[in-house]
Amino acid sequence: MHRFFAPSLDPGDDIVELPRDEAEHLTRVLRIGVGDMVAVFDGRGHEFVARVTVAARREARVQLLSRVDAAPEAAVAITLVQAVLKGEKMDDVVRDAVMLGVTSIQPLVTRRTETTIGALLRGARPDRWRRVALASVKQSRRAMFPEIRTPLTLDHYLGEPPPALRLMLVEPSVPSTAVALGRLRSRPTPQDAAVLVGPEGGWDEAECAAASAAGIELVSLGPRTLRADAVAVAALSILQFLWES
Asked: How confident is the prediction along the chain (245 residues), in pLDDT tens digits per residue?
């Protein structure tokens, strides 16, 4: 059953109108018509089986029929703080992180990031990442739509209110007091957490020092150096296992 995002959905409604882009996908791409059954979710945890009542070119409405149990969310609310990667690699990270259950993604511009915040905003990259995130939400059957935040520099991020736990993934070659990620197994499960992942080339020493001074723990995935676009997937998978999600 095809799933559609309906942010205006209210569980008490009978009829729900889909956003224009979702309506066009329903009618022009999938060729779904009046009377067909679909699923709709609001991005806040609610999902329903629904029947299409209107299927015009740029307009679609559905009638809510029954509540659906969406895929359960992770036990710990995780924000992925990801340094922006080149080309489509960032799209891949957003897609996979959403699939793995992150609550939000904070794009970051660091000293070794090959772009600027201005360039990202002019190129509407956050909007693109939101579209990628939505596609991943649909595929993974989540009913929660993670927040894709406005890009920040590392300095600005370090001034933000912190979650219960913040971890910075560092490369094996970085001289630091980094500990193995698996050591978190012996600690209590946090209510929420942030995972910082660097760009191609990694963090520089000053960034690691600033993060450590701000109370962020430096952690390592082991002796091998991973591709920048693989670090988030590996780290999130390990944390989900450790926190039994």
From this structure: 899 999 999 988 899 999 999 999 999 999 999 999 999 999 999 999 999 999 998 899 999 999 999 889 999 999 999 999 998 999 999 999 999 999 999 999 999 999 999 999 999 999 999 999 999 999 999 999 999 999 999 999 999 999 999 999 998 876 667 888 888 888 999 999 999 999 999 999 999 999 999 999 999 998 888 999 999 999 999 999 999 86
* Partners of 41 in beta bridges: 5, 47
State which H helix or E strand residue 106 sits in. strand 104-109
Residue 32, domain extent: 3-67
114 and 234 fall within a common domain: yes
Burial (CB count within 10 angstroms: exposed 0-12, middle 13-18, buried 19+), residue 112 = middle
Please give the model's pTM, rounded to 2 decimal places: 0.93
Same domain, 63 and 127: no
- What CA–CA distance (Å, rounded) separates 164 from 166? 7
Question: Residue 53: helix, strand or coil by DSSP?
Answer: strand
Total domains present in the chain: 2
Among 132, 121, 131, CA closest to 92: 132
Q: Do the beta carbons of residue 40 and residue 62 sit within 8 Å?
A: yes
